[in-house]
Predict the 3D structure of the following.
Amino acid sequence: MATSVEGIAHELNLENVDPLPEDFDPTGVIKDPLPPLVNDSRVGVNVEGNGEVKKEREIVLGRNVHTMCLEVTEPEADDEVTGEREAYMASVLARYRKSLLERTKHHLGYPYNLDFDYGALGQLQHFSINNLGDPFIESNYGVHSRQFEVGVLDWFARLWELEKNEYWGYITNCGTEGNLHGILVGREVFPDGILYASCDTHYSIFKAARMYRMEFEKVNTLTSGEIDCKDLKAKLLCHQDKPAIINVNIGTTVKGAVDDLDLVIKTLKESGFNDDRFYIHCDGALFGLMMPFVKRAPKVSFKKPIGSVSVSGHKFVGCPMPCGVQITRLEHISALSSNVEYLASRDATIMGSRNGHAPIFLWYTLNRKGYRGFQKEVKKCLKNAHYLKDRLRDAGIGVMLNELSSTVVFERPHDEEFVRKWQLACQGNIAHVVVMPNITVEKLDKFLAELIGKRAVWYKNGTFQSPCVASELGNENCFCGLHK
Ligand SMILES: Cc1ncc(COP(=O)(O)O)c(C=O)c1O
C-alpha cells in the first residue's frame, strides 16, 4: 500500500502539479480550534434560602427557549470509531420528530396548512439548490430550479390576471419579503410617495416604512378589521400634493379581514388621485390564494390599477418551509434592478441567495391540486370556520367571523397553558383559530370540548369572569356579564 507522500502523489496523479511555496505550511492551522466557553449572560444568578445557587433567565418576551436548547458538543476523538455520536444524534432527532407530531396535532392558531406529503421530493435533499439573482435570467450557478420557479410564477400571474410578458416576480423567503419588495417597488415608482396602511396591517409593512424611511399614515379600521375608507379619504385629502402608496390587506393577521380593494380605488379617485398618482400593494400573505375562489370577495386582479401582490407559500398553499410569491408589473422592475457581474444575472430581489427547494415544493403542490383543488379546500375551510363559530356561540363564548374569512376570533382563554397547548395566537382579550385545510371537524370538536370543559372550571365560582370583547369584536359578538 502506498503510504509515502510520493506514493500518494503518484496515486492521485499529482506529480505534475506546481509545488507549494516553501513558506506554505499545510499543517499550519490553528492548534486548538475550540473557541473558549462563554459565560451565559442570559441567565441571572439567584441564591436560594438554603444557599443553593439557582440560575434563572430573565424572561422578557415569549418563552425561555434557551432553557431547553440542545447544546452543540464537540465530538470525542474516537467518536467516528464507536458511532456513539451518530447514535446520540439519531435519538435526539427521533425524539424531536415525536414532539413535532404531537405539536402538529394541537396546532390551531397559525395559518399554516400542515396537510401535505412531499415524500417524492426527498431525493432532492442532497442538492444545494439556490436561485440567487433574477428568476428569468440564468446565473452562472447551475444548481438552480428556475424552470420550476418560472412555472409557479406563471400560475400565479394567471390567477391574478397578468399576461406572461407583462409580469415580473420571484419566489421569496416569506410573505414579509413580498411586502418589503412590494413597498420598495411602490417607493421606486413614487420616491416622494406617502405610505398608507391600516392599523390592523401586519408589522412587515411598518417595518418597510422604517427601513425605507418613508412618510407614513396609519389608517383606522372598522370593527371587522377592514380599512376604514372614510378615514383613508380624510388622510388622503390632507396630502394631495404627494403620491399615495397603499397597502391593501387580503386578510389581516388577527381578524382575517379583507380590505375592499374596489372601495380603496374608488376612495383614491374621489380624493383626486388618478392612476398615475398611486401605487397599490396587495398583502395577500394570508388569504391571497383563498380569495380568488370566494364568490363575493373583492377580486384581486392586475386588470385593476394595482402594482403588486404577494402571498405566503407556507400558509394556505402548504409548503413545509417558509416561502412566498411576489408578482408585480414588469414595467416597474427596470428601475429597481441592477446587473451583477459575478452572478452574470440581474438582481431586483431583496435577498441574495434564494431557496431553490421552495419553488419545487410549490410547483409540486400546485400541480397536484390545481385551481380546482384549491377551490375545494377553500370551501371546506370556510365551512369548518362557520362550524367553529356556531359551536362557540352556542356555548355562549364571544366570537366573530368575517364573511370572507376562515379566521375565527373569540375571547382569549383564561389559562395560558391551554393557549400554549393549542398554539393560539392572542392579542389583548382575543384569540383566534385560523381554519386551514388540515383542520378537521373532529379536531375542532376536540378543541371545543376541552375549551368548554375548562371554562366551566375557570369561571365556576365567579372569582374570574370571561373577558369582555365588545371593543374588539363589537357588542353583538360579546357574551360577557355586561353584554349577554
Ligand atoms: C397579513 C399578513 N401579512 C404578512 C405576513 C407575513 O408573512 P410571513 O410570516 O410569511 O413573513 C403575515 C403573517 O402572518 C400576515 O398575516
Notes: The chain has two domains: 124-368, 372-477.
